[in-house]
Amino acid sequence: MGTHDTSARSSASSRKGAENHPHTRTRVAGVVHDNSRHATRFTVIGNHLAQHAELSLLAIGLAVHIQSLPGGAPVGIKSLAARFPEGTTRISAALRELEAHGYLRRTRERTGSGRMVTRTVSCNQPGRTGGEEQTTEAPKPKPPTRRAEPKRRALPAVPQPAYPAPDLLVTALDILAALRRVDPRLHLSATDAEHLAPGVATWLERELTPDAVRRVLTFDLPTEPLRRPAALLAHRLGAQLPPLPPFRTSEDPATRYPLQNCDTCDRAYRAPEPGTCGGCRS
Prior knowledge:
The protein is of the alpha+beta class. The chain folds into 2 domains: 42-137, Arc Repressor Mutant, subunit A (Orthogonal Bundle); 166-245 and 257-281. It has helices at 17-20, 47-50, 57-68, 77-83, 88-100, 166-177, 179-182, 190-205, 210-218, 229-239, 278-281; strands at 104-110, 116-122, 132-137, 259-261, 268-270. It has a 3-stranded antiparallel sheet with strand order 1-2-3. Strand 4 and strand 5 form a beta hairpin. The termini are far apart. 16% of the residues are buried. Residues 1-8 and 10-18 have low confidence and may be disordered.
């Protein structure tokens, strides 16, 4: 059986007449050509391109399209992406394929006016000289603009404890970290918690229990979103600071009571016997 050479030039339409006649077809599978000679608006494409074994179908189609364009037509990535639905990423990859196999040559040149342009040469037979050139102006680079980061407003000052004991500050940090369990809007950053911890320690130093501090900080919060929860807590720590506990002289019998651990908050307090501290009882 002979083979069909699609690159051979047809001299007469009768050469394929038997192939195209419905009563003389003997093949049941494969392509059947119904060809007619072009007199105008045609482009000669070599089988080395149309049947290339390594190029993708997109690259072959893109090469055929570029070879059909007149000289000087824009063939930049953006121009092709505006013409076809494949998008810039796939078109850019197809152009790189054509460059790798010699069907395109792209170089950057500077014009007399100082602008950079990309000169594209389309080769219908890689390896031979000549070719249709299309020049596209490179897009002017946009000056990079950096968005100015908004300055973070400082938090209000908080009260400072008279004796900032480490264990007192640790307890204060635990109270602040647990606030988000009461209200998710009170999620604090590590920096905000470190700023607020001395204020909470001052409240604990004034004989308030952790639960009492937590209740004051989370009581009657606004219903709208909290844009700066740390600022709200800092304001409450300062504005609602409780007074100092009453001063006890050495003759006060309460000072002679032994230290007890509160059954509720495990905070040390003086009492004649174990139980709950005054804050928990209240």
